[in-house]
Amino acid sequence: MLHLPSGAGVLAGALQPYSLKPHRASALPGERPRLSPVPRLNLTAVTEFTFEGFSVFGWQHRLVLFAVFLVLYLLTLARNAIILTVIRLNCQLHTPMHFFLSVLSISETGYTGAIIPRMLSSLLSPQRAISIPDCATQLFFCLAFGINDCFLLTATGYDRYAAACNPLRYSVVMGKRTCLQLASGSWSIGPSTASIQVSSVFSLPFCDANVISHFFCDIRPLMQLARADTTIKELVTLLISLCVLVLPAVLIVISYVLIVSTSLKIPSARGRKKAFATCASRLTVVVVHYGCASVAYLKPKSHNSLKDRLISVTYTVITPLLNPVVYSLRNKEVKDALLRALGKNPLS
Length: 348
Fold this sequence. Notes:
Layout: H1 6-15, E1 48-51, H2 59-89, H3 96-124, E2 129-131, H4 132-165, H5 170-173, H6 176-201, E3 211-212, H7 219-225, H8 231-263, H9 269-298, H10 306-329, H11 332-341
Helix pairs in contact: 2-3, 2-10, 2-11, 3-4, 3-10, 4-6, 4-8, 8-9, 9-10
């Protein structure tokens, strides 16, 4: 008869409860043998999250950031309100271009409103929690309005292309029906895509870890907290990001390249200079917006660092402030209408 050494016997006894074969417990005659219980991890389901945000900064630095972001947010709201009011009250501004600018102002107001107020709150109270339903709601509106902005900027670029490259047929190409279709298409793509993403993210199990490495509920930081394999969901997110970031950016760049090539044929040097300045300013905003968003959503999987959060500030705080300036307040018709509203004579 073979006898195990004492050390081997201890090891065999330690591994016995984790054997893949069912262990028969003692049973009375006629009873079915019972299986020994399988040990389980003691995980606690998460019911709320907290944001890491900018908690690495001291109180004084957070107070400075709060003041800066608050001013930028109020300026964004004020400029969007001015644009909407001026365009609404001036019949001369009821054109396709200004229609898209109005819709873009509404969308960006919703986008910044979904992110910045809670970010300001977390700067003052870093440990303030957000429930899972509130987090899902914030993620939905961030994605919905953000995707709206991407496609509305594309529609604006197409409108400028039609005006510059096909001026004789502009009123036909950009009729009221076409404008409504482009705007409604953007507003339908945003919420539908956001619904898919939100349902995908919050179908994951969240246990124990509840600190989001960001200053708002976003897809990738939330997936990092999930207790499950997220490879397939991350591939889906990557494909969606390519469609809503890269495709619109490429279309916008193509539109302005065609506008520049058409502007080269303008005999007036002043006209060419004005066209180039307009295209350069708009392309700068497009590159900043889509470039920073692409870094956030298209980079390889990694922990969301403070550097990533500062990059996110660019497309959540800075570009929503720049868009009203570049697309509207630099527009001569809008500036003249604003000056008339203030009781001043438009500049020649």
